[in-house]
Specification:
Elements: E1 2-9, H1 15-28, H2 37-53, E2 63-71, E3 74-81, H3 108-116, E4 119-125, E5 128-136
Antiparallel strand pairs: 1-2, 2-3, 3-5, 4-5
Helix pairs in contact: 1-2, 2-3
Length: about 140
């Protein structure tokens, strides 16, 4: 099993370092390059949601921990933050048949993450939101 983690403040400027961390993990674990795309997309979507929606005026900026693991053909991406409790999986799936101009803004990123990953779970433990995403790369 290979595991790595990195903790940053919830700031859009940190996305580049998180993406580089994921890419370095991918290289170190010698994973197939094509398999990285779902993880890069999930990282961007989930992290930017924390940045945009997890910070409230007068409250501390959330800290975000990215954990990556590779074990027996399965890659996992776990994103934890100490912002307000929020389960992104509770959002309804977007109506993909509705005309674009009638669709509400938001929700498509979480939908894509759910479609690209084999399993996505959320839990709130203590003061942490935890979104775990896994995909088989066998």
């Amino acid at each position: 099993m290979i595991e790595r983690s990195l903790c940053v403040v919830s700031d859009a400027a940190q996305l580049q370092s998180l993406t580089e961390f994921l890419q370095q993990f991918w290289n170190d674990a010698q994973l197939p390059p094509a398999g990285a795309f779902p993880f890069e997309l999930a990282l961007e979507e989930v992290f930017m949601n924390v940045v945009m929606h997890g910070t409230h005026p007068g409250q501390p900026v959330p800290r975000v921990t990215l954990r990556l693991s590779w074990d027996d053909g399965q890659a996992a991406l776990v994103i934890e933050d100490d912002g307000p409790a929020f389960d992104p999986l509770s959002l309804p799936s977007p109506d993909l048949n509705a005309p674009i101009e009638e669709r509400p803004v938001g929700g498509l990123g979480v939908f894509l993450v759910r479609e690209l990953m084999d399993e996505v779970t959320y839990q709130h433990t203590g003061t942490l939101n935890q979104l775990r995403m896994t995909k088989s790369l066998k």
